[in-house]
Amino acid sequence: MRLWTTAAVSLLTALVYFATRFYASRREFRKLQRENLNTVMHNVMWKIAREHFPGGLYYLYLWPFSATILIVCNAHAASQVEHLNLGKPKSVVGPIDTIAGGPSLLTQEGSEWKRWRRLFSKGFSAKHLLSLAPGIAEEVAVFRDLLVSKCRDTGCSEMFQIEEMTVRMTLDVIARVVMDKRLHYQVRDNPLAAALRSSVEWTSWRGQLNPFATLSIRPLVHWRNSRTMNRYIGQEIDKRFSESKLGSKTSSSTGDQSKSVLSLLINDLLGEADSTDPSGHIKPDIKTAMCSQVRGFLLGGHDSSSGALTYCYLLLARHRTAHIRLLAEHDAVFGKNYSNALAHIQADPHKLNQLSYTAAFIKEALRLFPPAGGMQQGRPGVFLVDEEGRRFPTENCGIWTVSQGIHYQERYWVKPEAFLPERWLVGPEDPLYAGGPRTKGAWRPFEQGPRNCIGQTLVMLELKIALVLTAREIDVVPAYEEWDALHVKDDKIIKTVNGNRAYQEEKIAAHPADGFPVRVVLRSKKAGDGSSRPMHV
């Protein structure tokens, strides 16, 4: 009897809470409507802004699934957001902190964020990352070898989902950069990588809506994964700390003193009196914070790079002229014998800075397929103002800067839906020019302002290396028709977005649908003479 009474009281409490929140949310939404501001329910596609709200600002009402969201598809307003020093909503902070094991640069605010951003800025500088390019290239070379091995016998692979391979490769890369640790995740399972991906899969972004979420085994899974990750990362912290403290000249992978992001961080922490105890060891709270930061880098550093690389391959397959020009640039910088590319990068990483067209290709790919947008929490007294002077209150609203909604607008870009790497290379006299006042603040794959992505230089470098080591030797050919023939029922409509079958699916960052099914073709087998003739679809 007591159990039934408890259940009834719990249910009644939940219903009262729901009704109260529903009424409050509807009241807030009606207030926005009375102020004649743009309000839309149940649709967050960027097309809404283009077709119905040309100003690029509108409210999205999703109760009970979410609080009201102010959608920002306007570069002028997005630039305001980046300077308002707004925190992230609890619905974002909670899941990310769960995966990272605590606050990280992804979610920290105020003085703590400034401190850790300063400490990590040296390790993620363009100059330092270029010095790590040989190690990055070594990890990418494993990826290249695995792709080639898939088609060694006939010159063409079977159909497979390449996303799993890109995820494993980018995890190997970010671990190498941050910890100077080779996970070898591309060739065998690794406990750190497995625990991280398990935590991502078990993380609920909607758990606050489900009163029974805490009754699942999810907390136990996260506890186990967290212990695994902290144990693994903690051992690497101890190794790097010992090297830095003792001035060791050995490293886990290179034979020289480690230049990892973690090693630079520890060197700086050793100069801070409050980071070590009297015996000279890192304080437990500092070590815990370092583990969370590393986990945050592993999370953000692999997911966005993986998705971006798959879209680079998609665009290479679709655009013959761009493909040929990219290959010609690689021949000019690294020589026509593509098998020597790895040695060239390791001997002189600065050659990567000569890849102006490749950089433009990547930037245009990121414009068309941005990995993520930005989400902040509004607050009382804070308004966004559009070009016409209309004020949009942010109180009780999430603020979602939709990068794609800005990247696809004609007010900022000439032919916004066209793939034109040239827009990043032409001068101000050309209408395509992407560096003038028209496009100011309108390229946002990594967001902008003080809280832009600290790893964006690494992403660009990693993508350059991946294209240099693979694009001249193989063609990655999308195989969606073949995939759909095997996996889609006859009576099911195959979904496309804006005519694109490889539409973006939201994970941590955006990825191509269905893991991007492809076939890989050796160009030398196809051409018959070793020439660089790309295959296109």
Description of the structure:
The protein is α+β, with helices and mostly antiparallel strands and 537 residues long. It has one domain: Cytochrome P450 (Cytochrome p450, Orthogonal Bundle), CATH 1.10.630.10. The chain contains 19 helices and twelve strands. Helix 7 (133-149) runs antiparallel to helix 14 (341-347), helix 13 runs antiparallel to helix 15 and helix 15 packs across helix 17 (456-470). It is globular, with a radius of gyration of 25 Å. Its cofactor is heme. Heme binds at residue 453.
Offer a concise description of the structure.
The chain has 19 helices and twelve strands. The protein is globular, with a radius of gyration of 25 Å. With 537 residues, it is α+β, with helices and mostly antiparallel strands.
User: What is the overall pLDDT average?
Assistant: 87
Into which percent range does the helicity of residues fall? 40-55%
Number of separate strands: 12
Q: Sheet bearing the most strands, described?
A: 5 strands, mixed
Low-confidence segments: 32-44, 248-252, 527-533
Shape: globular
Lateral arrangement of strands in the main beta sheet: 1-2-3-8-5
Name of the CATH superfamily: Cytochrome P450
CATH topology: Cytochrome p450
Number of separate helices: 19
Number of individual domains: 1
| Spatial separation of the terminal alpha carbons | 68 Å
CATH architectural category: Orthogonal Bundle
CATH class: Mainly Alpha
Based on secondary structure, the structural category is: alpha+beta
Task: Tell me the β content.
Answer: 5-15%
GO molecular function: heme binding; iron ion binding; monooxygenase activity; oxidoreductase activity, acting on paired donors, with incorporation or reduction of molecular oxygen
Binding site for heme: 453
Keywords: Heme, Iron, Metal-binding
Cofactor: heme
